[in-house]
């Protein structure tokens, strides 16, 4: 898998919801991040894409912190570390690099990953795909701290579990 390619451009509200398709079929969506929820975003950090209002009252895709919800949410990963509010491209589908908290269960590629309430990284989901499965591991990772690892994002809305 090649390294993260930054989808760089000075995005504005005019680009809201634009879907960008990469060379290998991966997809990115332009969404607004207000700089507050979450307060900062690390490279590869998972977020969810919902809809809301940006600082200029434009309605469109908006980044939100990961919280428990009965309504399915669309996960995405940040391509760069973000500290300033604005419009950015977030990857929603395909081969990507995302922050993963390792465990003994992620002993090989092909393990299902989910997002939990308040998460800033993906975690092991179990042996069978669930309504919370957001991605699949692209490599083994058994260390307990979060690190940038190869994953495949399914691109489908998921339910965020409390724990």
What does this structure look like?
The protein is mostly beta strands and 163 residues long. Helices cover 0% and strands 45% of the residues. Strands 1, 2, 3, 4, 5, 6, 7, 8, 9, 10 and 11 form an 11-stranded antiparallel sheet that branches. Residues 1-6 have low confidence and may be disordered.
Order of helices and strands: EEEEEEEEEEE
What portion of residues belong to β-strands?
A: 35-45%
- Overall shape: globular
Tally of separate helices: 0
Ends apart, CA distance between termini: 31 Å
Tell me the total number of β-strands. 11
**Mean pLDDT, as a whole number?**
88
Q: From the helix content, strand content and strand pairing, which structural class follows?
A: mainly beta
Could you list the spans in which at least 5 consecutive residues all have pLDDT below 50? 1-6
Helix content, binned percent: under 10%
Biggest sheet architecture: 11 strands, antiparallel
Backbone CA Rg: 15 Å
Task: Give the key terms.
163 residues; mainly beta; eleven-stranded antiparallel sheet; 0% helix; globular; disordered N terminus
Overview in brief:
0% of the residues lie in helices and 45% in strands. It is mostly beta strands and 163 residues long.
List the SSEs and their pairings:
Blueprint (H helix, E strand, L loop, with lengths): L18 E3 L5 E7 L12 E8 L5 E6 L4 E10 L7 E16 L10 E3 L8 E4 L6 E5 L8 E8 L4 E3 L3
Antiparallel strand pairs: 1-2, 2-6, 3-4, 3-5, 5-6, 5-11, 6-10, 7-8, 7-9, 9-10
């Amino acid at each position: 898998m090649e390294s993260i390619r930054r989808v760089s451009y000075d995005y504005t509200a005019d680009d809201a919801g634009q879907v960008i398709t990469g060379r290998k079929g991966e997809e990115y969506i332009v969404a607004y991040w207000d700089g507050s929820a979450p307060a900062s975003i690390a490279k590869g950090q998972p977020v969810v894409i919902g809809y809301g209002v940006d600082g200029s009252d434009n309605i469109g895709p908006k980044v939100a912190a990961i919280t428990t919800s009965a309504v399915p949410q669309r996960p995405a990963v940040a391509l760069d570390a973000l500290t300033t509010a604005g419009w950015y491209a977030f990857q929603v589908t395909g081969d990507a690099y995302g922050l993963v908290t390792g465990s003994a269960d992620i002993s090989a590629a092909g393990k299902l990953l989910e997002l939990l309430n308040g998460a800033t990284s993906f975690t092991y989901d179990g042996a069978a795909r669930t309504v919370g499965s957001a991605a699949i591991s692209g490599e083994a990772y058994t260390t307990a701290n979060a690190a940038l690892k190869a994953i495949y994002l399914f691109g489908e809305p998921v339910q965020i579990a409390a724990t």
